[in-house]
Amino acid sequence: MTANVVLIQPLAALIAGILILIVPRLLNYVVAIYLIIIGVLGLAAGWS
After folding, report:
1. Regarding predicted confidence, which is higher, 23 or 5?
2. pLDDT digits 0-9 by tens, 36-45
3. Distance between CA atoms of 13 and 21, rounded to whole angstroms?
4. What pLDDT does residue 5 have?
5. Using 50, 70 and 90 to split pLDDT, how confident is the model at 34?
6. Closest by CA position to 3, among listed 34, 32, 41, 47
7. Would you say 41 and 2 are in contact if contact means Cβ atoms under 8 Å apart?
8. Per-residue pLDDT tens over the stretch 6-31
9. How many domains does the chain have?
């Protein structure tokens, strides 16, 4: 599970950056979704 989290974080950051460049008004939503996903994955990795 740890390897998956390590691979997902840069991918999520890349997608978030592209979305922010395309639609700057999405910044708040993209950051919020990114933080929620990273938090959930971090908790899931800690429990397993």
Report:
1. 23
2. 888 888 888 7
3. 12
4. 63
5. confident
6. 41
7. no
8. 777 788 788 888 888 888 888 888 88
9. 1
Q: What's the pLDDT score for residue 36?
A: 86
d(CA 20, CA 10): 15
Helix, strand, coil fractions of the chain, as percent rounded to 5: 95, 0, 5
Residue type, 23: V
Q: How far is CA 13 from the centre of its chain?
A: 6
What tokens were used for 32? Answer: 């919020």
DSSP character string of the chain:
-HHHHHHHHHHHHHHHHHHHHH-GGGHHHHHHHHHHHHHHHHHHHHH-
Interatomic CA distance for residues 42 and 18, integer angstroms: 23
Q: Which domain holds residue 32?
A: 2-47
